[in-house]
Amino acid sequence: MTTLDIDLVLVPVDGSEASHEAVDYAIEIADEYDATVHALYVLDEEVVRALETGAVDEADVADDTASFTESVTERAEVAGVDHSNSIAYGFSTEVKTVHPGSVVLDNAEELGSDFIVVPREPITGTPGQVLEKAAEYVLLYASQPVLSV
After folding, report:
1. Could you tell me if 35 and 10 are in contact, meaning their C-beta atoms sit under 8 angstroms apart?
2. Assessment of whether the complete model's pTM goes beyond 0.90
3. Mean pLDDT for the chain?
4. Among residues 2, 5, 4, 7, which one has the least CA distance to residue 113?
5. 3-state secondary structure the chain
6. Could you tell me the residue range of the domain that residue 51 belongs to?
7. Alpha carbon of 82 to those of 11, 40, 99: distances in Å?
8. Cβ neighbours, 10 Å, residue 126
9. Cα gap 62→104, rounded to integer Å
10. What CATH number does residue 87 fall under?
11. Based on the number of CB atoms within 10 Å of its own CB, is 10 exposed (0-12), middle (13-18) or buried (19 or more)?
């Protein structure tokens, strides 16, 4: 039997309820393997377009995502798991190949992630639930083990 060597668990989030559940799973896995959790907040198309046109300020977006990332911090600290957070644009108006799935996988490679926990949300069309578009792509193309919750 082969055991996994996991040092970093990446959990892409978008502020949805499914993201909270994915964070809980990521923290459990990190705790089991004495690993670190990194929560990657993936911004949806509407927010990215507003940032690119100057309709909204980056500081305002960071403030809007702060409560979710603070929740990740609190839950990781209660579990005694090291953690970090970052924010990424889930879309690009200039580069066609940039979409939520590719953003998750590019960040996984850049961070050296050994495991990914991705929320798999039902397709609802609700703005802000960007990861419903990424889950299948991540499952198909990730080089790391993936847990879809």
Report:
1. no
2. no
3. 87
4. 7
5. CCCCCCCEEEEEECCCHHHHHHHHHHHHHHHHHCCEEEEEEEECHHHHHHHHHCCCCHHHHHHHHHHHHHHHHHHHHHHCCCEEEEEEECCCCCCCCCCHHHHHHHHHHHHCCCEEEECCCCCCCCCCCHHHHCHHHHHHHCCCCEEEC
6. 8-148
7. 13, 15, 28
8. 11
9. 18
10. 3.40.50.620
11. buried
Please, what is the end-to-end C-alpha distance for the chain in angstroms?
A: 25
> Out of 51-55, 84-88, 144-148, which region has the weakest mean confidence (pLDDT)?
51-55
Distance, in Å, from the CA atom of 52 to the CA atom of 57, rounded to the nearest integer, reads 9
Asked if the structure places residue 96 within a domain, the reply is yes
pLDDT at residue 128 tops 50: no
Q: How far apart are CA 66 and CA 116, in angstroms?
A: 22
Look at the chain and report how many structural domains it folds into: 1
Q: Are 10 and 131 within 8 A, CB to CB?
A: no
Find where tokens 């705790």 sit.
31
